[in-house]
Design a protein that fits this description.
The complex is a heterodimer of chains A (about 190) and B (about 120). With about 190 residues, chain A is mostly helical. Chain A has 6 helices and no strands. The N and C termini of chain B lie far apart (about 50 Å). The chains are: A mainly alpha (about 190), B mainly alpha (about 120).
Chain lengths: ~190, ~120
């Protein structure tokens, strides 16, 4: 093994260690707001793992969408909740007897899926390609040609998600007058008021 | 492989070092006498009436959702933008890549138009 290989191994273990510790923090940290911040670290760690696998597009998406967007959304969801105690909303580890076996089962299913899957590699990039934008380029070409329908359908799916989420999250308002908003309930209305 | 992330690593290290140095110097030179009233949440110099932790309006959530959707869209712009110049033009596919992304954006814009028309972007 060359020195660079050793460095790769070291980088993997450092990044994976950070990810695992942060993920454990999500479960075991008492305050839910801290758990959310741990989740942010874990998501960034996963982005680092993608980077070590030279999946540059996934790295960008992971940072942008998950660390940037999903974490913010979860923070907002926490802030939409009632305050349960002075220290914020407390999490906890209940139902350990059911949760532990369930986790182990899920772990085995995922591990089996990883081991027994036939992995499809990008054409021209069977192995990890070190060029910074080569596999982003390949993915871009495929998205615009062979997987064009899926690409456009992603847009439709996101449209449906957007409209559905807005309808669920909408505040109470006077019946079917589109522009007129009831607006009296400042933040007091329930999460899924119709 | 990981060595190529050297600049990224330098950024990370630089960020940590900056934070540690800035906070460390502040810790060393600031006066250390604190009392309870000093530790109250700062709210423009006024004594806060309520704790800072309170329920937020659902409107924030809708804005965050819109942000998230269009961020995913931005993520799809990356691979498109990388190959756009190579694939466009008379030698390749002409205006097709542009049109494909136009359709993609157009479908998503419907969602923004929907939210706009239904008044979900109104702040009251």
């Amino acid at each position: 093994m060359t020195w660079a290989d050793w460095f790769d191994q070291l980088a993997f273990f450092v990044v994976a260690g950070i990810t695992i510790v942060a993920a454990a923090g999500v479960v075991f940290v008492p305050r839910i707001i801290h758990a959310c911040l741990c989740l942010l670290v874990a998501l960034i760690g996963i982005a680092g793992l993608y980077g070590l696998m030279a999946a540059h597009l996934l790295l960008a998406i992971q940072l942008l969408v998950y660390a940037g967007g999903i974490a913010v959304l979860i923070l907002f969801a926490i802030m939409l909740l009632h305050r349960r105690s002075d220290g914020g909303i407390l999490g906890g580890t209940r139902n350990l007897i059911i949760g532990l076996p369930a986790t182990v089962i899920v772990w085995f299913v995922v591990a089996a899926a990883v081991i027994f899957s036939k992995w499809h590699y990008l054409p021209g990039g069977g192995t990890v390609s070190p060029q910074a934008d080569s596999n982003v380029r390949i993915i871009g070409e495929l998205l615009l040609s062979r997987h064009l329908l899926a690409f456009e359908l992603v847009s439709v799916v996101m449209l449906m998600a957007l409209v559905g989420a807005i309808i669920i999250a909408r505040e109470d308002r006077s019946t079917d007058s589109g522009q007129q908003v009831a607006g009296q309930q400042t933040g007091e209305s329930g999460g899924n008021a119709q | 492989m990981a060595l190529e992330y050297g600049p990224v690593g330098l950024f990370v290290i630089g960020g940590f070092v900056f934070a540690i140095v800035a906070l460390g110097i502040a810790y060393l030179i600031r006066p250390a006498d604190t009392y309870d009233r000093k530790l109250i949440t700062y709210e423009c110099g006024i004594v806060p009436l309520t704790p800072a932790w309170h329920r937020f309006r659902i409107s924030y959530y809708i804005i965050a959702l819109l942000f998230l959707i269009f961020e995913v869209e931005a993520a799809f712009l990356f691979p498109w933008a990388v190959v756009l110049r190579d694939l466009s033009g008379p030698q390749a596919w002409g205006l097709l890549p542009l049109a494909e992304m136009g359709i993609f954006l157009g479908i998503l814009l419907l969602g923004l138009v929907y939210a706009w028309r239904k008044g979900d972007l109104q702040w009251n």
